[in-house]
Amino acid sequence: MAPSHLSVREMREDEKPLVLEMLKAGVKDTENRVALHALTRPPALLLLAAASSGLRFVLASFALALLLPVFLAVVAMKLGLRARWGSLPPPSSLGGPWVAVRGSGDVCGVLALAPGSNAGYGARVTRLSVSRWHRRRGVGRQLLAFAESRARAWAGSMGETRARLVVPVAVAAWGVAGMLEGCGYQPEGSWGCMGYPLVREFGKDL
Asked: β-strands 123-130, 186-193: how paired?
């Protein structure tokens, strides 16, 4: 259960740099696991092997030809993850972004929401991150509960017949996936590369 001295409110402008650092730190905590998961799939290994074979005719060093494609692939994947989840999204019709704040004034989590891609798809979590110093203390659950209440209110204001919330989760973020399943969310699908998932989506009717 979330502690009673934890509150959620809209982010202030002066808190933006701190929130950005929190988002970037959250991406860094998972990007290596996501890259390892993606680059050890059979199609990725075949592509890396083909690239290395081609580079052997250009580069004098066998080791460099072997490592360069892996290095470039890891860098490209990390940059993509940081661009997608390591920045603040533009404001949406649901409001926000919001921050979780302890009684002492410490910002310990951030949440952003957006409407689903189509009418009737409910709301989506576009950012959900907790400071590493405040994890496993109920902050994520309280932010999720707040997101659900906002999704219900927004669905009512839009005249939707049901409220729904979808949360995307990086495939390597097992702790977040476990929290969502414990809160009644069900896996609905995934998206990724070459037929292998990099992000799973969890949904719940509210």
From this structure: unpaired
Q: What is the pLDDT of residues 142-197, one digit of tens each?
A: 999 999 999 999 988 888 878 899 999 888 777 888 889 999 999 988 876 666 77
Say how far apart CA 10 and CA 186 lie, in whole Å: 28
Q: Is the pTM of this model over 0.90?
A: no
The dihedral formed by the CA atoms of 126, 132, 135 and 140, expressed in degrees to the nearest 10:
-10
Residues 6+ apart with CB under 8 A from 197: 171, 190, 191
CA distance 11 to 29: 23
Contact 158, 3 (CB under 8 A): no
With CA atoms as reference, report the closest residue to 77 among 48, 113, 114: 48
If pLDDT is split at 50, 70 and 90, which confidence band does 2 have? very low
User: Starting at the edge strand that comes first in sequence, how are the strands of the sheet with 186-193 ordered?
Assistant: 6-10, 98-102, 107-115, 123-130, 164-170, 196-205, 186-193
In order of 32, 80, 114, the CA distances from 202 in angstroms are 22, 22, 15
Residue in this structure with the two tokens 């580069």, named with its chain if needed: 59
3-state SS of 96-136 is CCEEEEECCCCEEEEEEEEECCCCCCCEEEEEEEECHHHCC
Give the burial string for 154-183 (b: 16+ CB within 10 Å, else e): bbeeeebeebbbbbbbbbbbeebbebbeee
